[in-house]
Amino acid sequence: MNYRHAFHAGNHADVFKHLVLSQLFALLGRKDAPLAYLDSHAGVGLYDLSGDQASRTGEWQQGVGRIWGREDVPAALAPYLDVVRALNPDGQLRYYPGSPELARRLSRDQDRLQLNEKHPQDGRLLKDNMAGDRRVAVHLGEGWHVPRALMPTAEKRVVLLIDPPFEQADELSRCVEALKDALGRMRQTVGVIWYPIKDERQLRRFYQDLARSGAPKLLRAELHVHPTDDASRLNGSGLAIANPPWGLEEQLREVLPWLAAQLAQSEGGWRLDWLIEEGSK
Fold this sequence. Notes:
- By secondary structure, this protein is α/β, with parallel strands linked by helices.
- Helix content is about 35%, strand content about 20%.
- The chain is built from ten helices and ten strands.
- The strands form two sheets. It has an eight-stranded mixed β-sheet with strand order 5-4-1-6-7-9-8-10, with helices on both faces.
- The mean pLDDT is about 95.
- It catalyses: adenosine(2030) in 23S rRNA + S-adenosyl-L-methionine = N(6)-methyladenosine(2030) in 23S rRNA + S-adenosyl-L-homocysteine + H(+).
- Keywords: Methyltransferase, RNA-binding, rRNA processing, S-adenosyl-L-methionine, Transferase.
């Protein structure tokens, strides 16, 4: 367990992932029914961009740093950027929300958060950062066990984020298995898998596995900051979203071209399509 997300906090992949997560909360929040948010690999929840780890890489400068303070951002970014601004009320970008903090701030009184982190030190920091919010439970364990350990939930609606560190060669296939496990327990789970765009050969197999996952519907969204033909670097990232709420596809079609243009490092691009269309077999 060598991965520490603080080195990468606020980079282009975080901006994309957290933008989509914020849109999910906004769209699902239109109904009063309570929501459960489950995070399989939660990290520490809150990051100091001036800290040693984030400063060492400076990746945030090519991510959130490029859109911070902009006045011409699409409306769909508002919930996400509102959280970042709330953490930095003096207007100086220093603190960045991980997925748990973003979910905590965008969820409602009737919603509940179940956060899991395997790394012992990060798990303790996550507990400290979430302390005082009775809606939040922090678990210290193997993230792949989250669907079977925590589902079904008392809430009828669930957002599950599967976001492993991708240190092991089999993690793409394990993501699919975790999604299938979740859907087997709660069919209408909004399951979100984050994945890196590096090796196109591995991704082709991943896409095939997703298409055979049995999800009622599954949307693929990708953001590229480099051409996708170099397996030695992070060319971009993707999100496979099972059971996306109505309206998400339309919002992403509006915001992804803008985001790709702002975050491109050599050549930006994006993709949005259905790996499983609703009603297909």
